[in-house]
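We modelled the chain as a single entity of 171 amino acids. Its sequence is:
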Amino acid sequence: MISIILTGAPSVGKTTIVIDVAQKLKARGVRVGGVVSREVRTGNVRIGFEFIDLATYDRDVLASVTGNGPRVGKYIVNLAGCRFAADRVKNALINSDVIICDEVGPMELKSNEFIDALKYLLKTDKKAIVVIHQKLEHPLIREFREKPNSLININIGNREKVAEILLNELS
């Protein structure tokens, strides 16, 4: 398995890079699957996060400022949305050449289904990009950090080069 772990400060561009790499790999005929998570905003106010399936572009809510479920900061985690993401990651393990999981953070780890999908991802022999919350401590996260072929800490100085590095390793 070629396992690439990406991390970095919030808003440094991790998701933007991963989406760009996914699109370029698809253009080269590579089957890409998995999920990315993006902010949901109303005007300039962040009201939550959503998952986007990289194969179908279907979406589901990860967390919002309203609803029922476990709380992380001001957000309420949508466990059904986490199940959606877990199912997409498991599907990608079967049907994709490259699996992307963005992001593994405290909200996603409120879901047992998501954790189970990550455990399968740790065991795959396929190529994978996993984006990990920069300061998160969790036994499963430690396993990912110990296993990668590459661990890239994205910052303003290197973010323009990271997509090219990923494409070279995954093509």
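As a brief sanity check on the tokenised model: The mean pLDDT is 94. The helical segments are 14-27, 79-95, 112-123, 139-146, 159-170.
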